[in-house]
Amino acid sequence: MMKQKVIQRFANLSAIGMFLILAMGALVTKADAGRGCGDEWPLCHGKFVPAHTISSFIEYSHRLVVGVVTLILIATFYLVFRYVKRADAKWFITGTIVMTLIQAVMGAMAVIWPQSSVVLALHFGLSLLAFAFSLLLALIFTPYGDYDGAGVVRGGFKALVWITAVYTYIVVYLGAFVRHTSSSGGCSGWPLCNGEVIPELSGATGIVFMHRIAALLLFFCILTLYIQAKKRYDATDKMVLGSKWALIFVLLQIISGAVVTWSMTNETAYLFTGMIHAMIIACLFGFLSYLCVLTLYYRKQT
């Protein structure tokens, strides 16, 4: 029992740590602090503790948190493989570590060798996957991770869940691409873009408008998912609860996206709302990932 509690605490710390890394990574991008430590890694301007400029502090703090969380992940990895018999727990901690390592390597490469916005946008996507894996691991040690007596799932509903999750990842990538191309100012105002329903689709305006349309379609996908879950399962079923929270978070994501646009004239508010937007996206993707896992445990029904 004592070992179980220790493992659960480390799993929770891993999920919290990955969530913090994701939020701080979004802050680094929003504050344009990715070059805050120059072209050096792991040192920052040749020092372990750099000068306290804002950009170097933000970038170095992000690196420090990644280092601490990595140690927590290593300890969690050992505990899971040593004491936990569930195969899914081993898959989830392995996925977390693999995504974190790839993310760290890409981050170091981005500092030493500047990369395109297309590649840099993948950095946030990897952080999202790492957080999703860590969240799924933490849920194993809660009632939500108990899949005994799971219900049935039809092929059509299972496909809807997975398609929605994959499409969400694409929308997230588009959002990260908006940030890394500094295109956020392409659409002033919300819900209209530069005062138009359909603006001129070129440059930064086209990139932002494409992201907005993709986010709107995502809302309808998740709304459909929730409606279908309610039709097929009892109100207390994990499928319904997960779908409901996904719907709540996609609504919050749209609202926070509007707030980000409205706050662009205030630098501090813009940074803060941008972080909130990224954290909401992480929660949304986390719930959709949980639904994907549920479809693997529910019995298939034709």
Automatic annotation (TrEMBL):
Subcellular location: Membrane
Transmembrane annotation, as ranges: 64-84, 91-113, 119-144, 156-176, 209-229, 241-264, 276-298
Membrane-protein topology: Multi-pass membrane protein
Keywords: Cell membrane, Disulfide bond, Heme biosynthesis, Iron, Membrane, Metal-binding, Oxidoreductase, Transmembrane, Transmembrane helix
Keyword Metal-binding tagged: yes
Pfam families cross-referenced by the UniProt entry: COX15-CtaA
Record InterPro entries: COX15/CtaA_fam (IPR003780), COX15/CtaA_HemeA_synthase (IPR050450)
Keyword Transferase: no
PANTHER family, sorted: HEME A SYNTHASE
Protein's name according to its UniProt entry: COX15/CtaA family protein
Domain of life: Bacteria
Biological or metabolic pathway of the protein: Porphyrin-containing compound metabolism
